[in-house]
Amino acid sequence: MQTFSFDPVEMPPAAATLREEAREFLKEHNASRKPLDRAQSWSGADPEFSRKMGAQGWIGMVWPKKYGGQERTSFERYVMLEEMLVAGAPVGAHWIADRQSGPLLLNFGTEEQRQKYLPPVTRGEMFYCIGMSEPDSGSDLASVRTKATKVDGGYLINGRKIWTSNADKAHTMIALFRTRTNEQNRHDGLSQFVVDLRDSNGNDLKEKNGIFVRPISSMLGEKHFNEVTFEDAFLPDTALVGSEHNGWSQVMAELAFERSGPERYLSSIQLVIQMIKALKDSPSPQGYTAIGRLVAHLVTLRQMSVSVAGKLNAGEDPALEGSIVKDLGAIFEQEIPTIAQQIFSVEPTLGDGSDLEQVLGFLIQNSVSYSLRGGTREILRGIIARGLGLR
Amino acid sequence: MSDIRKMLAETVNRLLADIVTTEMLVDAEQGIWPKELWQAVEENGLTMPLVSSDNGGVGCTWLDAMVVMHGAGHYSAPIPLAETILATWLLDQAGIQPPMGPLSIASGSESQALQFHQESDTWHVSGVAKRVPWGGQVEQIVVTGMSEGKLRVGLVKQGNFGVENSQNMAREPRDTLTFDNALVSMTGIANGLPENAVSVYGSLLRSIQIGGALERTLSESVLYANDRTQFGKPIGKFQAVQQNLAQLADEVAAVGAASTAACAAIDLAFSSKEEVDSLFRIAAAKARASEAAGKASSIAHQAHGAFGFTYEHILHFSTRRLWSWRAEYGSGDFWAEMLGRRVVEIGADQLWVHLTATD
Q1: How much of chain A is in helix, strand and coil states, percent to nearest 5?
Q2: CATH number for the domain whose boundaries are A13-126
Q3: Is the pLDDT assigned to residue A244 strictly greater than 90?
Q4: In terms of CB atoms within 10 Å, which end of chain B has fewer, N or C?
């Protein structure tokens, strides 16, 4: 039985060069960012920072030049992501477009869509959100009910999306709607659309087009999440992405980009950094053992994640390997706060106290979401079990 | 995968799947040496992949040799195959052409290293080496100790040292060897290897073998779960069982990747002009593998129910090795602590630079 493989990968020399460039850039543009802000990882957003990255050619860097890309290898992009995440840089504004919406449009979009929607992304001027989940459709994504009804020249959208990060700020949404009902096959009849939420000057288009956004506070009091309601919102025919009713397979391909990247094991890296600093000040054998164990996991996860990047680069389908990386990555990210409390006798705080206490306070709470987003732990393990031949 | 690696993997898996029977494993636990198995691996060139062409070998990389040791772990091969691969490499590093036949490796403890001394033309070694794999069965032992600040590697023939037999939980020989001015038949200096080379590289052998044995526990568990029926369906159809076995697969994958990272770092250290901290990755591999060994063995036994607890079922040949190997050449926590000290020494701000330096 050999159902998965994590072969070693050699990074091209250009990746090392780019890594140095990224480090220089971060020294200039990220040095003053506070540890607590860095701990936001790829949820931390700063449009200004995104524009600076765009000016470097570091957003959509693997895309064709005619859409504003740099035609770099996926390893170079991987290195860029790593450096940004480890530095806790505010990459959140462009993250979704760079990771999945751009590749989706490259794969399935029309030439007109690519021309319109990709170049502004690479400049760090157009940000995306994803409209997939609904109040009654979480892990069971095929049950989405928000309807796109065919009308003359386009579609009328009615229904509700939820957990949509950045819907209030984003310019564009990639949404999954039901275009027809097929009692025999739930996966049939779903379609993807590109929805304009703001114009190129940033002016809000939502309410006048029947799209209403309500923020949802997380338990930390942050408002990344939104509920998005569509009331007879009109989308022109040109908003359809790919083929009508075939959205399911497109979404599955899109999610494959989501699961194995460095963001799936580096979300708590700022706490590891704070723990190493604290251990230097108050060393203990248990502390060394605990940190050593965490770094052993870190080294291993990186090896696995890079290996999956190699598979993606070679055009292979690493759905199983990606699920394994994400499952293990979330366990790692979530156990770090607990381990920090075993080594150090500190109380987690909300924005005051030491950097360790602040980062701890944030990650204890925020990390519970790491095994939910991008596919729950249970769904991932179901995928792995299928790969093993159990279902 | 390189061609040579593919070929080695195919050869070791084909041979061991064929020859290592349950009967052979049972016999080996009674002290019966599996002669035909040793002959087969030796005739097929699996015993010294790391030896350079200067010393009559083919000069494979550690990544290549890893697949042989992985196979040995997968099939619970009851011979010192991984040990012989390391022993022949140490000899090669010291400029000595390795002999045929099974070998093992011995060094003293950290506090009581083996002592080499020269008397006119001949070298001798003294000291005690504990828990040496197949120490009383192999034809010759490769011993290491320090000599003028460098690692000296020597070869000592069976009969020149005292043997006190013991075993690990899997009943693999782990003997205490007493060298009392024992004659060293060949010796040389291995430049570039650390004083604790046997412990460091020995730990990597075990990490790799743990990866192989874990893979076997996974495939056995999947077979069993698809076969065993309760409540009217195979137990593998129950989500609770699926979720457990998915976690077992996670651990298998992680250990393979951890050892791969370590082997790649060693290969880079020996081929690059730049300083490469391969010890960092070797320590990480053993820390990760030892942790996985415990977790995965529990899941595998849980999936197998009472049948997996019987001597008749083959699962324990893997799990008893896993519990033994995770402790050998330093426990997971031993290496984690060493790694943790190194990490603090490197410093929080430089850790990532250090981790990415081997790309």
Answers
A1: 50, 15, 35
A2: 1.10.540.10
A3: yes
A4: N
